[in-house]
Amino acid sequence: MRLFIALMLSILIFAAGCTRIVVVKTKSPEQKSNPIVVKKQHDIKQSNKFLAKAKVLYSKGKYKKTIKFCEKALQYNHNTREAHYYIGLPSQRNREYAHSIEALKIGLKLGPNDKHMKSAIHCGLAINYEKMGMVKRARSEYQLALEFNTANH
Fold it and tell me: 26: pLDDT confidence band, cut at 50, 70 and 90?
């Protein structure tokens, strides 16, 4: 039976001729939804450009524009943790706590493994939960924020 299967596979591969096989590396099982795509340098520069503008807008209190520029940054590089973070912060300021939590959680899942950024994200999540009256969840997020950055007190 194994010989038959091997023979059939050989015939199938031979019959396919020059057909290209493309292998797409995927994320871990809990993050299966998006394949890992290597971004072009141009895309990363564009993303960083929009993100830099978003940070300036955030510092000026222009929260809706901040979100728009972060969304533009994500069009070029959807794996940037900072863009999700800077969507979460102004959403929090606009009292859109559920939207803020969603953005911050996405940012938390993305790399790189920067302890200070993780701490800031957990702190943002804690504030959202606290504002929503979810004190236990807020407390656990504050504790995680402190674990990643003890200077965050």
Answer: very low
151: how many CB neighbours lie within 10 A of its CB?
A: 7
Query: What pTM, to 2 d.p., does this model score?
Result: 0.70
Q: Are 88 and 108 in contact (CB under 8 A)?
A: no
Runs of H (alpha helix) within the chain: 2-16, 41-59, 63-76, 81-93, 97-109, 115-131, 135-148
Q: Is residue 35 classed as helix, strand or coil in its secondary structure?
A: strand
Classify 17 in phi/psi space as left (phi over 0), alpha (psi -120 to 50) or beta.
left
Q: What is the DSSP letter of 40?
A: P
Tokens of 116: 């200070």
